Amino acid sequence: MNQPAALDLIDESARFFSEPAGDPLVALEKAHLTQLTLCDMLEQIADSIPGQINREVCSRLAAGLLPLIRDIHQFEEEILYPQALDRLGTAPEIESTIRRLRYEHCEDECFAEELADALYELGTGKAPRNPEAIGYMLRGFFEAMRRHIAFEHEHLVRLLRQTATDGQQGLVTG
């Protein structure tokens, strides 16, 4: 996906997750697509440091990163996880899985706040004080996010889909 289209997806997703509607599992798939697109963009920025930084992309991501992450996490914690617990409450380890995902959300939000500051600095056009540290920070964030999504998919989405194929309806209507 090219950068303008990726930025548009991230902007549109930010509006969507401020008031998600419909089946939470479908919304989660949209969240994962948005987050993976964000990861790809952050990886491109990390690869471009120090010499070929796209200041506009950095500025837009600096402004939208934390609100997007918070909105997605709020959707998961207030809508998806409670419905998943109602649906999967007897599944082995579902409570510990959701507890782990919530903990990772706290860490991701703290990291996103620091990363937004670094992206803002890159967006100003000033030479980064420590380009290696910013590259390391970017990589740490997007790698953690990719792992979180993979874990969520493997341990939560799989169970939710399995219950849907066992004759139950979607999360919202079940």
TrEMBL record:
Cited Gene3D superfamilies: nmb1532 protein domain like (1.20.120.520)
Top-rank taxon: Bacteria
Positions of the Hemerythrin-like domain: 25-159
Matches recorded under InterPro entries: Hemerythrin-like
Name recorded for this polypeptide: Hemerythrin domain-containing protein
